[in-house]
Write a structure and sequence with these properties.
This is ATP-binding protein. By secondary structure, this protein is α/β, with parallel strands linked by helices. The protein contains 5 helices and 8 strands; from the N terminus they run βαββββαβαβαβα. The strands form 2 sheets. Strands 4-5-1-6-7-8 form a 6-stranded mixed β-sheet, sandwiched between helices. Strands 2-3 form a two-stranded antiparallel sheet. The relative contact order is 0.18.
């Protein structure tokens, strides 16, 4: 019996193939507390089908995971999210979303390796969960920008007030975004790229 098929062998979708013009690839990490929108941002902006490791939340997390403000959330990232976006014909960003629950933060070390920069996503309803996140980035010396995810009904604060509350240096960009929208999420990544470029230029001038 001949099991050979006349169909061509399966391969990657055309949309998933890295452009031949790509000359540089940059690893970027999307960080933040539980339920701030990291998986949503990666999924919204990725030009390939994102890889997610979301699992249904179980009773094991009761009393362990802080779900205040996101009580309706039924899934959580247990390892990472992964996506890709071409900023232009030559520059490609590989996006790695970290798990938000503190019991999975031990995975951050591996995800940070080789990362050129990071995006910190904030939820103004739960601003306090961002302090440890920012502290970890500062300890590792990872440059980052802060993006305030605009959840419906969330309190709105002037960005400079948020900067002061988070004790951010004046040079660190902070902006508002909607992680559900591709254009808004892409603007966040472009802001990070401009910030990294300006930092590199400053270091070269020293």
């Amino acid at each position: 019996m001949d099991f050979r098929s006349s169909d061509p062998p399966a391969g990657p979708r055309e949309a998933d193939i890295l452009p031949q013009t790509a000359a540089a690839a940059v690893k970027v990490v999307i960080v933040g507390g539980f339920g701030v929108g990291k998986t949503t941002l990666v999924g919204a902006v990725s030009e390939i089908k994102p890889l997610t490791t979301e699992e249904t939340m179980t009773r094991a997390g009761v009393g362990v995971d802080d779900t205040w403000g996101v009580a309706r959330k039924i899934t959580t990232t247990v390892a990472m999210d992964f996506g890709r976006i071409s900023i232009n014909d030559e520059l490609v960003l590989y996006l790695f979303g970290t798990p938000g629950q503190e019991r999975f933060w031990f995975l951050w070390r591996g995800l940070f390796e080789g990362a050129l920069g990071a995006v910190v996503l904030l939820d103004t309803r739960r601003l306090e969960i961002s302090f440890d996140v920012i502290g970890r980035l500062e300890e590792r010396g990872v440059p980052f920008v802060v993006a305030v995810n605009s959840f419906p009904g969330a309190p709105e604060h002037p960005l400079e007030e948020l900067r002061e509350a988070l004790d951010l240096p004046p040079a660190v960009p902070i902006l508002v975004c909607d992680a559900r929208r591709r254009e808004s999420s892409r603007d966040v990544l472009l802001t990070l790229m401009r910030y990294l470029h300006s930092q590199a230029a400053t270091q070269e001038a020293m």
